[in-house]
Amino acid sequence: MSDSNLPFTRRAARRLLRPLRPLALPFLNRLQLRMAHAVEHSGILLRMEAEARDRADAARLDAEAARLDIEALMQRIAVAQLGVDAIRLDMQQFAGATKGAIDAIRQQLEQALRATGELTTMAARLVQRVAVPLGTEVMVRSPEGYLLLPAEDDRLIAHLIDSGGRLEPGTITVIQALIKPGDTVIDVGAHLGLTVLPAARAAGPGGRVIAVEPGSRVAGLLRRNIALNALDEVVVVHGCAAGASPGKARLSIRPVLGESSLINPITEGPTEEVLVQPLDALVPPGTRIRLAKIDVEGYELEVWRGMTRIVADNPDLALLLEFGPSHLQRAGITPAEWMSSFVQAGFRIYEVEEMKGLVRPARPLDALQQMLSVNLLMLRAPLSEYPALRTA
Protein backbone atom coordinates (compact mmCIF):
# COMPACT_ATOMS: atom_id res chain seq x y z
CA MET A 1 0.00 0.00 0.00
CA SER A 2 1.49 3.37 -0.97
CA ASP A 3 1.96 6.08 1.60
CA SER A 4 -0.65 8.30 -0.16
CA ASN A 5 -3.35 5.90 0.65
CA LEU A 6 -2.47 5.69 4.33
CA PRO A 7 -4.02 7.91 6.94
CA PHE A 8 -2.17 11.06 7.78
CA THR A 9 -1.02 9.76 11.16
CA ARG A 10 0.46 6.63 9.65
CA ARG A 11 2.24 8.60 6.98
CA ALA A 12 3.65 10.94 9.57
CA ALA A 13 4.87 7.99 11.69
CA ARG A 14 6.58 6.35 8.73
CA ARG A 15 8.38 9.59 7.90
CA LEU A 16 9.58 9.93 11.46
CA LEU A 17 10.73 6.25 11.71
CA ARG A 18 12.36 6.05 8.28
CA PRO A 19 15.64 7.64 9.49
CA LEU A 20 15.68 5.15 12.38
CA ARG A 21 15.31 2.02 10.21
CA PRO A 22 19.02 1.53 9.56
CA LEU A 23 19.61 1.70 13.31
CA ALA A 24 16.77 -0.70 14.27
CA LEU A 25 17.38 -3.20 11.53
CA PRO A 26 20.18 -5.14 13.30
CA PHE A 27 18.09 -5.24 16.46
CA LEU A 28 15.09 -6.49 14.52
CA ASN A 29 17.19 -9.09 12.78
CA ARG A 30 18.55 -10.32 16.11
CA LEU A 31 15.04 -10.30 17.53
CA GLN A 32 13.80 -12.27 14.57
CA LEU A 33 16.73 -14.71 14.93
CA ARG A 34 16.07 -15.17 18.63
CA MET A 35 12.39 -15.71 17.98
CA ALA A 36 13.24 -18.27 15.32
CA HIS A 37 15.62 -19.94 17.76
CA ALA A 38 12.97 -19.84 20.47
CA VAL A 39 10.46 -21.40 18.13
CA GLU A 40 13.01 -24.01 17.13
CA HIS A 41 13.92 -24.73 20.78
CA SER A 42 10.30 -24.89 21.75
CA GLY A 43 9.82 -27.48 19.04
CA ILE A 44 12.80 -29.43 20.34
CA LEU A 45 11.45 -29.21 23.85
CA LEU A 46 8.07 -30.36 22.65
CA ARG A 47 9.68 -33.28 20.86
CA MET A 48 11.77 -34.09 23.92
CA GLU A 49 8.67 -33.89 26.09
CA ALA A 50 6.85 -36.15 23.69
CA GLU A 51 9.77 -38.55 23.62
CA ALA A 52 10.01 -38.46 27.41
CA ARG A 53 6.29 -39.08 27.61
CA ASP A 54 6.70 -41.97 25.19
CA ARG A 55 9.61 -43.36 27.23
CA ALA A 56 7.60 -43.02 30.44
CA ASP A 57 4.73 -44.81 28.81
CA ALA A 58 7.10 -47.50 27.61
CA ALA A 59 8.63 -47.72 31.09
CA ARG A 60 5.18 -48.10 32.60
CA LEU A 61 4.43 -50.81 30.09
CA ASP A 62 7.76 -52.50 30.85
CA ALA A 63 7.10 -52.24 34.60
CA GLU A 64 3.66 -53.70 34.16
CA ALA A 65 5.10 -56.47 32.02
CA ALA A 66 7.81 -57.07 34.63
CA ARG A 67 5.20 -57.17 37.37
CA LEU A 68 3.22 -59.71 35.39
CA ASP A 69 6.41 -61.71 34.80
CA ILE A 70 7.22 -61.61 38.52
CA GLU A 71 3.72 -62.76 39.41
CA ALA A 72 4.01 -65.58 36.91
CA LEU A 73 7.43 -66.49 38.35
CA MET A 74 6.01 -66.47 41.90
CA GLN A 75 3.23 -68.76 40.79
CA ARG A 76 5.79 -71.11 39.27
CA ILE A 77 7.81 -71.01 42.52
CA ALA A 78 4.65 -71.77 44.53
CA VAL A 79 3.90 -74.72 42.25
CA ALA A 80 7.52 -75.88 42.59
CA GLN A 81 7.30 -75.54 46.39
CA LEU A 82 4.21 -77.71 46.38
CA GLY A 83 6.18 -80.28 44.43
CA VAL A 84 9.09 -80.06 46.86
CA ASP A 85 6.74 -80.44 49.82
CA ALA A 86 5.16 -83.46 48.19
CA ILE A 87 8.62 -84.98 47.59
CA ARG A 88 9.65 -84.23 51.21
CA LEU A 89 6.48 -85.87 52.50
CA ASP A 90 7.12 -88.90 50.32
CA MET A 91 10.72 -89.06 51.58
CA GLN A 92 9.58 -88.78 55.21
CA GLN A 93 7.05 -91.54 54.69
CA PHE A 94 9.72 -93.63 52.97
CA ALA A 95 12.22 -92.92 55.75
CA GLY A 96 9.64 -93.83 58.39
CA ALA A 97 8.80 -97.05 56.63
CA THR A 98 12.51 -97.81 56.12
CA LYS A 99 13.34 -97.06 59.77
CA GLY A 100 10.53 -99.32 60.88
CA ALA A 101 11.84 -102.08 58.66
CA ILE A 102 15.42 -101.52 59.88
CA ASP A 103 14.29 -101.52 63.51
CA ALA A 104 12.37 -104.72 62.94
CA ILE A 105 15.42 -106.32 61.31
CA ARG A 106 17.65 -105.08 64.15
CA GLN A 107 15.29 -106.56 66.75
CA GLN A 108 15.23 -109.84 64.89
CA LEU A 109 19.05 -109.84 64.74
CA GLU A 110 19.30 -109.06 68.45
CA GLN A 111 16.86 -111.84 69.24
CA ALA A 112 18.82 -114.20 67.02
CA LEU A 113 22.09 -113.19 68.71
CA ARG A 114 20.57 -113.68 72.15
CA ALA A 115 19.23 -117.06 71.11
CA THR A 116 22.62 -117.97 69.67
CA GLY A 117 24.33 -116.86 72.87
CA GLU A 118 21.92 -118.87 74.97
CA LEU A 119 22.42 -121.90 72.77
CA THR A 120 26.19 -121.48 72.98
CA THR A 121 26.00 -121.23 76.77
CA MET A 122 23.76 -124.28 76.96
CA ALA A 123 26.07 -126.20 74.65
CA ALA A 124 29.09 -125.22 76.75
CA ARG A 125 27.30 -126.36 79.89
CA LEU A 126 26.35 -129.65 78.28
CA VAL A 127 29.98 -130.18 77.25
CA GLN A 128 31.11 -129.35 80.79
CA ARG A 129 28.61 -131.68 82.48
CA VAL A 130 31.31 -134.11 83.47
CA ALA A 131 30.93 -135.84 86.83
CA VAL A 132 33.24 -138.73 87.67
CA PRO A 133 32.53 -140.76 90.88
CA LEU A 134 35.73 -141.43 92.84
CA GLY A 135 34.56 -143.27 95.95
CA THR A 136 33.99 -140.68 98.67
CA GLU A 137 34.40 -137.84 96.14
CA VAL A 138 32.96 -136.81 92.80
CA MET A 139 35.11 -134.95 90.28
CA VAL A 140 33.24 -132.20 88.42
CA ARG A 141 34.52 -130.09 85.56
CA SER A 142 34.38 -126.27 85.79
CA PRO A 143 35.52 -123.52 83.36
CA GLU A 144 38.64 -122.97 85.51
CA GLY A 145 39.51 -126.62 86.11
CA TYR A 146 38.43 -129.80 87.90
CA LEU A 147 36.93 -129.87 91.40
CA LEU A 148 36.74 -132.76 93.82
CA LEU A 149 33.46 -132.58 95.74
CA PRO A 150 32.34 -134.63 98.75
CA ALA A 151 30.08 -137.39 97.44
CA GLU A 152 27.64 -136.81 100.33
CA ASP A 153 26.92 -133.21 99.25
CA ASP A 154 24.23 -134.12 96.70
CA ARG A 155 22.86 -130.58 96.35
CA LEU A 156 26.25 -129.06 95.57
CA ILE A 157 27.04 -131.74 93.00
CA ALA A 158 23.67 -131.25 91.28
CA HIS A 159 24.04 -127.46 91.24
CA LEU A 160 27.53 -127.55 89.76
CA ILE A 161 26.64 -130.08 87.08
CA ASP A 162 23.56 -128.08 86.09
CA SER A 163 25.43 -124.73 86.05
CA GLY A 164 28.49 -125.93 84.19
CA GLY A 165 30.78 -125.74 87.22
CA ARG A 166 29.94 -122.28 88.55
CA LEU A 167 27.75 -121.90 91.63
CA GLU A 168 27.84 -118.06 91.55
CA PRO A 169 28.72 -117.08 87.96
CA GLY A 170 28.19 -113.34 88.46
CA THR A 171 30.46 -113.23 91.50
CA ILE A 172 33.17 -115.10 89.59
CA THR A 173 32.87 -112.62 86.72
CA VAL A 174 33.29 -109.73 89.18
CA ILE A 175 36.32 -111.40 90.80
CA GLN A 176 37.99 -111.84 87.43
CA ALA A 177 37.25 -108.20 86.53
CA LEU A 178 38.81 -106.92 89.77
CA ILE A 179 42.03 -108.96 89.71
CA LYS A 180 45.02 -108.17 87.53
CA PRO A 181 48.01 -110.44 86.86
CA GLY A 182 50.39 -110.37 89.80
CA ASP A 183 47.75 -109.36 92.40
CA THR A 184 47.39 -110.88 95.86
CA VAL A 185 43.89 -111.98 96.89
CA ILE A 186 42.43 -113.25 100.18
CA ASP A 187 39.59 -115.81 100.07
CA VAL A 188 38.05 -116.40 103.52
CA GLY A 189 35.56 -119.25 103.47
CA ALA A 190 37.38 -120.65 100.45
CA HIS A 191 35.30 -123.85 100.59
CA LEU A 192 36.33 -126.27 97.82
CA GLY A 193 37.87 -123.62 95.57
CA LEU A 194 34.88 -122.45 93.56
CA THR A 195 36.17 -118.86 93.76
CA VAL A 196 39.81 -119.72 94.51
CA LEU A 197 40.43 -121.26 91.08
CA PRO A 198 39.07 -118.25 89.11
CA ALA A 199 41.05 -115.85 91.33
CA ALA A 200 44.23 -117.89 90.87
CA ARG A 201 43.76 -118.01 87.08
CA ALA A 202 43.27 -114.21 87.02
CA ALA A 203 46.27 -113.48 89.29
CA GLY A 204 48.52 -115.74 87.24
CA PRO A 205 51.91 -117.22 88.07
CA GLY A 206 53.16 -113.95 89.56
CA GLY A 207 50.13 -113.57 91.84
CA ARG A 208 49.02 -115.13 95.09
CA VAL A 209 45.73 -116.34 96.57
CA ILE A 210 45.61 -116.75 100.36
CA ALA A 211 42.78 -119.25 100.99
CA VAL A 212 41.31 -119.71 104.48
CA GLU A 213 39.04 -122.70 105.18
CA PRO A 214 38.48 -124.14 108.72
CA GLY A 215 36.71 -127.48 108.12
CA SER A 216 39.20 -130.34 107.92
CA ARG A 217 37.20 -132.31 105.31
CA VAL A 218 36.69 -129.29 103.07
CA ALA A 219 40.21 -127.89 103.59
CA GLY A 220 41.66 -131.27 102.61
CA LEU A 221 39.63 -131.34 99.39
CA LEU A 222 40.61 -127.72 98.71
CA ARG A 223 44.32 -128.63 98.87
CA ARG A 224 43.74 -131.56 96.52
CA ASN A 225 41.85 -129.32 94.09
CA ILE A 226 44.73 -126.85 94.09
CA ALA A 227 47.19 -129.64 93.31
CA LEU A 228 44.84 -131.21 90.74
CA ASN A 229 44.87 -127.94 88.77
CA ALA A 230 48.63 -127.31 89.22
CA LEU A 231 48.09 -124.10 91.19
CA ASP A 232 50.31 -124.96 94.18
CA GLU A 233 52.68 -122.08 93.33
CA VAL A 234 49.85 -119.56 93.33
CA VAL A 235 47.53 -120.65 96.17
CA VAL A 236 48.43 -121.08 99.83
CA VAL A 237 45.80 -122.78 102.04
CA HIS A 238 45.36 -122.04 105.76
CA GLY A 239 43.30 -124.75 107.46
CA CYS A 240 41.80 -122.51 110.11
CA ALA A 241 39.09 -119.93 110.65
CA ALA A 242 39.69 -116.18 110.39
CA GLY A 243 38.55 -114.18 113.41
CA ALA A 244 39.16 -111.17 115.62
CA SER A 245 41.85 -112.81 117.78
CA PRO A 246 43.78 -116.11 118.03
CA GLY A 247 42.01 -119.00 119.69
CA LYS A 248 39.74 -121.94 119.08
CA ALA A 249 36.07 -122.25 118.11
CA ARG A 250 33.42 -124.88 117.34
CA LEU A 251 32.50 -125.25 113.69
CA SER A 252 28.94 -126.51 113.11
CA ILE A 253 29.09 -128.98 110.22
CA ARG A 254 26.07 -128.74 107.95
CA PRO A 255 24.84 -131.37 105.42
CA VAL A 256 25.67 -128.77 102.76
CA LEU A 257 29.30 -128.25 103.78
CA GLY A 258 29.37 -124.71 102.38
CA GLU A 259 26.79 -123.72 105.01
CA SER A 260 28.91 -124.82 107.97
CA SER A 261 29.23 -121.97 110.46
CA LEU A 262 31.01 -120.73 113.58
CA ILE A 263 27.88 -119.01 114.89
CA ASN A 264 24.97 -120.70 116.67
CA PRO A 265 23.85 -123.74 114.60
CA ILE A 266 20.37 -123.76 113.08
CA THR A 267 19.80 -127.35 114.34
CA GLU A 268 21.78 -129.81 116.37
CA GLY A 269 24.46 -131.66 114.43
CA PRO A 270 28.13 -132.57 114.30
CA THR A 271 30.74 -129.98 115.23
CA GLU A 272 34.48 -129.71 114.91
CA GLU A 273 36.97 -127.71 116.94
CA VAL A 274 39.00 -125.42 114.71
CA LEU A 275 41.80 -122.91 115.15
CA VAL A 276 41.06 -119.22 114.75
CA GLN A 277 43.65 -116.73 113.47
CA PRO A 278 43.32 -113.00 112.59
CA LEU A 279 44.05 -112.26 108.96
CA ASP A 280 46.63 -109.73 110.14
CA ALA A 281 48.57 -112.74 111.51
CA LEU A 282 48.17 -114.82 108.32
CA VAL A 283 49.16 -112.09 105.87
CA PRO A 284 52.71 -110.69 106.13
CA PRO A 285 52.93 -106.93 106.83
CA GLY A 286 53.39 -104.81 103.72
CA THR A 287 51.53 -107.25 101.46
CA ARG A 288 49.51 -105.38 98.86
CA ILE A 289 46.04 -106.91 98.81
CA ARG A 290 43.82 -106.29 95.81
CA LEU A 291 40.69 -108.14 96.95
CA ALA A 292 39.41 -109.84 100.07
CA LYS A 293 36.45 -112.17 99.53
CA ILE A 294 34.67 -113.15 102.76
CA ASP A 295 31.85 -115.72 102.88
CA VAL A 296 31.55 -117.07 106.43
CA GLU A 297 27.82 -117.45 107.10
CA GLY A 298 27.35 -114.44 109.37
CA TYR A 299 30.86 -114.38 110.92
CA GLU A 300 32.01 -111.49 108.70
CA LEU A 301 32.39 -108.86 111.44
CA GLU A 302 34.73 -111.15 113.43
CA VAL A 303 36.89 -111.55 110.31
CA TRP A 304 36.73 -107.77 109.79
CA ARG A 305 37.94 -107.04 113.31
CA GLY A 306 41.01 -109.21 112.71
CA MET A 307 42.19 -107.41 109.55
CA THR A 308 42.54 -103.79 110.70
CA ARG A 309 46.19 -103.58 109.62
CA ILE A 310 45.40 -104.99 106.17
CA VAL A 311 42.59 -102.46 105.72
CA ALA A 312 44.81 -99.57 106.86
CA ASP A 313 47.72 -100.62 104.63
CA ASN A 314 45.57 -101.02 101.51
CA PRO A 315 43.50 -97.90 100.77
CA ASP A 316 42.38 -99.34 97.42
CA LEU A 317 41.31 -102.67 98.93
CA ALA A 318 38.13 -104.20 97.48
CA LEU A 319 35.85 -106.38 99.61
CA LEU A 320 33.42 -109.01 98.39
CA LEU A 321 31.09 -110.23 101.15
CA GLU A 322 27.96 -112.33 101.48
CA PHE A 323 25.09 -110.43 103.11
CA GLY A 324 22.68 -112.94 104.67
CA PRO A 325 20.04 -111.45 107.02
CA SER A 326 19.19 -114.89 108.48
CA HIS A 327 22.86 -115.50 109.33
CA LEU A 328 23.09 -112.13 111.06
CA GLN A 329 19.94 -112.85 113.04
CA ARG A 330 21.48 -116.07 114.39
CA ALA A 331 24.65 -114.13 115.22
CA GLY A 332 22.66 -111.46 117.08
CA ILE A 333 23.86 -108.69 114.73
CA THR A 334 21.51 -106.19 113.14
CA PRO A 335 21.89 -105.56 109.41
CA ALA A 336 22.39 -101.84 110.15
CA GLU A 337 25.26 -102.60 112.54
CA TRP A 338 26.82 -104.99 110.03
CA MET A 339 26.59 -102.49 107.17
CA SER A 340 27.79 -99.46 109.14
CA SER A 341 31.06 -101.22 110.01
CA PHE A 342 32.08 -101.05 106.37
CA VAL A 343 30.47 -97.75 105.45
CA GLN A 344 32.28 -95.97 108.30
CA ALA A 345 35.57 -97.29 106.90
CA GLY A 346 34.89 -95.42 103.66
CA PHE A 347 33.51 -98.24 101.52
CA ARG A 348 30.76 -97.71 98.95
CA ILE A 349 28.37 -100.62 98.60
CA TYR A 350 27.39 -102.32 95.33
CA GLU A 351 25.25 -105.37 94.63
CA VAL A 352 26.41 -108.22 92.43
CA GLU A 353 23.86 -109.35 89.85
CA GLU A 354 24.62 -113.06 89.56
CA MET A 355 22.82 -113.65 86.26
CA LYS A 356 24.48 -110.74 84.45
CA GLY A 357 27.90 -110.58 86.06
CA LEU A 358 27.72 -106.86 86.79
CA VAL A 359 27.39 -104.57 89.80
CA ARG A 360 25.06 -101.71 90.62
CA PRO A 361 24.64 -99.40 93.64
CA ALA A 362 23.11 -101.33 96.51
CA ARG A 363 19.45 -100.92 97.26
CA PRO A 364 18.39 -99.37 100.60
CA LEU A 365 19.00 -101.57 103.60
CA ASP A 366 15.27 -102.19 104.10
CA ALA A 367 15.12 -103.75 100.63
CA LEU A 368 18.31 -105.76 101.11
CA GLN A 369 16.94 -107.24 104.34
CA GLN A 370 14.13 -108.86 102.36
CA MET A 371 16.60 -110.98 100.40
CA LEU A 372 17.72 -114.45 101.44
CA SER A 373 21.31 -113.70 100.49
CA VAL A 374 23.25 -111.37 98.18
CA ASN A 375 26.92 -110.80 97.49
CA LEU A 376 28.03 -107.20 98.01
CA LEU A 377 31.07 -105.53 96.46
CA MET A 378 32.60 -102.78 98.63
CA LEU A 379 35.03 -100.26 97.15
CA ARG A 380 36.90 -97.26 98.45
CA ALA A 381 38.50 -96.44 95.10
CA PRO A 382 36.26 -95.01 92.35
CA LEU A 383 34.75 -97.40 89.80
CA SER A 384 37.00 -95.89 87.13
CA GLU A 385 39.91 -97.72 88.80
CA TYR A 386 38.33 -101.01 87.67
CA PRO A 387 37.85 -100.66 83.88
CA ALA A 388 37.04 -104.36 83.41
CA LEU A 389 34.20 -104.20 85.93
CA ARG A 390 30.76 -104.09 84.30
CA THR A 391 28.22 -101.78 85.97
CA ALA A 392 24.47 -101.41 85.62
TrEMBL record:
Signal peptide: none annotated. Residues 187-349 form the Methyltransferase FkbM domain. It comes from Plastoroseomonas hellenica. One of its GO terms (biological process) is methylation. The keyword Methyltransferase applies. This is FkbM family methyltransferase. It holds the Pfam family Methyltransf_21. GO terms for molecular function: methyltransferase activity. Keywords: Methyltransferase, Transferase. It comes from the Bacteria. InterPro entries: FkbM_mtfrase (IPR006342), SAM-dependent_MTase (IPR052514), SAM-dependent_MTases_sf (IPR029063).
